[in-house]
Structures are given as structure tokens and as C-alpha cells.
Amino acid sequence: MTFEAYMTTIRAKTGKGPQEFFDDAVKAGVLRPDTRATEFVSWIKGFAGLGHGHAMAVWEAFKRNGWLPLKGQGAGQ
Length: 77
Description:
Elements: H1 3-14, H2 18-28, H3 37-48, H4 52-64
Helix pairs in contact: 1-4, 2-4, 3-4
């Protein structure tokens, strides 16, 4: 499955894209400068009901957008 296909499936299932998940994770306190992928993936799997591969695709989207590592308030916005 391509990265784009993962993103399409995630949006169809949840109605959210990377920016919305980023905002949700920051508000929940899950994304901090020291957050590791495993912590985020565990959170989003429960929060959004995503499987491991789809959760990792969201983390990858954050990286591709330059939102990680988190530099503090306002990162990615």
C-alpha cells in the first residue's frame, strides 16, 4: 500500500487528516519534544481506532511535514 493510499484510507475511516491528528495529539499532551513514535502510535490506535500501519503512516506524515521533532507551542502550524 502506498503512503497516499494509507492517508486516503485514514481520512475515509476517521474524517481526519494529519493536521487534525497533530492538533488532537498536542491538545492531549501526547506530542512533546521527547515523544517517541511508539508512544504516539499507542495513543492514536486507541484514540482513532487505527491499526499499527495506519498509525505509523500518520507519524510519517508528521515527519514529512516537518512537524517532528516538536519544537514547542505552535510547531506544525
